Amino acid sequence: MIPPGPLNNRVKPGISSAIYWEVLFWTEYNSRSDDLSSDTFKYYPKLRVLKLSKDVLVKFPSDIFSPLTKLTDLDLSENSLTQIPCNLPSSLVNLNLNENPISDETGCGRDCLSPPDSLENLSLHNSNKGVFRRKKFPRFCESVPSIKYLDISASSLDSISSEDVAPLCGLQRINLTSVTVSHSNGTCQKLQFEKWLGDRKIEMIGSITAAKHDPNANCSFAPTNEAEEIYRNCTYKLHYQKFGLISIVVCILLLACILAAILWRRKRKRSTKKLDLENSSNAMVTIENRGSDGKTDEN
Fold it and tell me: Which residues form the signal peptide (predicted)?
């Protein structure tokens, strides 16, 4: 559903149909960050897909996405964002930040990424373009086992290591197309990183190019203790989440069984009571019939 105008003429409460919209595209409107406020999306409580791309947006109010409790897909590609928005919806599954000059400072008072636990796909293609030149692998504040796909293609990195990807123990695919590493020991870093991915059956799209190659480098492929510790903590979190989900399902099934048993007992009790009443009624009829037969015999 496409709105009737750009952000600075955004839908007002008078358009009642807005509350039913599930998909909203705002592209190439040349909106400014000043056009955005905490109330911008409060009229769209049912939005599942939101696209704000090909614009000049630089930042967002920290609570701008708070009303979007059902949002699963957010596309902020091809803007001028230097920070990843704070307080993303806990329902978010897909986040597209391609073609943004993301810097080291990611906002929210932290210099690391803290995506919601629901996030499965994160795209940061060419996210260090422009003057900011982040040149670092995305750094996560804590383990994010939910992420299954990560795109860091077309990135120029100073270095790369297994510690960078260790917080993503649920990762299944990673796009490394046109990724370059400028570190003097880049060849070893590339080989160690790719071995880490291979050992964990993570599919690699493309490959890393080491800008500086040392043919005499003595590379160690063993992961560091720090990487192993980070990965181990992530798997604990993943197992805990799965256990929590299984526990919820088991509890629901158990409650359903208990409810079914209660309903069955009530139904059986009603059936038994009805049968007793019928038997009692039949007994009364039999007694009355016998009484009538006795009187007939006396006559």
Answer: none
